Amino acid sequence: MSAAPILVTGATGRLGQIVVKRLIALDQPVRIFTRRPETARSLFGPAARIAVGEFADGASLAAAIRDAGRLLLLSPIGETLAADQIAVANAAAAAGLHRVVKISGSDWTIEPPGSSISGDAHAAVERHLRSLPVEHVSLRPNAWMQVSLANTIRQVLAGNPVAAANPDAGVGYIDARDIADVAVHELLADGIAGETLNLTGPDVVTPRQIAGLLSIALKRPVDVAERPPAGASPHGDFEQRAVAQFATLIAAGRAATTTDVVASLLGRAPRGVETFISEHLAAEAALAR
């Protein structure tokens, strides 16, 4: 067990919670940098130490990172994503931190540049990390099952069809639990596996195929509806515009990719869409009882 604590930003979010709980289960010392200490305490109890602060507050960042050994760099999609993460990276470098593991954007939002405001923000952070004297790796997860696929399942359970701008555009969905497992691996390994790692699930699955899997699981027909992606309103906030761009890129087939990164690092196959659907439907049924 490392004596130096692992600092985690974004710990109260969907992915951050999984990472922190994995680290705690491995008896790793964890320190959480958060502006929501009550939420963090309710999630993790006394198992994780809490450093209260804001990304824009250099003093609180310096205090949080002092004597930490490694950093999980994670923050929500937003206008200040690049500035916030660069501030944390600079504090890490100034403190002589050993390693930064960044949760980045999907590879297809970053390359080529200019197609996604979110991808461009993550790319700016990745470039900045390369300029610092800190060992680092940027994880680029493909579309998360717990976000877009979970919403599709909820819509179908409510009696709606599987709606997609392009029903035949595949996605190499990845389970957030696999992202977390790779992040923990890279935090604890003797050395990082590479500067950027493109994380996907085992298969490319189309909305039409998802409708077929749901039809089998629910034992009823599930329709597919082709709907053009909603345009990004210039008056929407950063996240709304970013999500609209994601939909356009997915419809163009940009997320239709798989890699063997998860399997090569963890020694097991990543979780697949069929398993996720089965688990999600079982959880929904349990809640309805």
UniProtKB/TrEMBL annotation:
It holds the Pfam family NAD_binding_10. Residues 10-187 form the NAD(P)-binding domain. InterPro entries: Ergot_Alk_Oxidoreductase (IPR051604), NAD(P)-bd_dom (IPR016040), NAD(P)-bd_dom_sf (IPR036291). This is NAD(P)H-binding protein. It comes from Rhizobium puerariae.
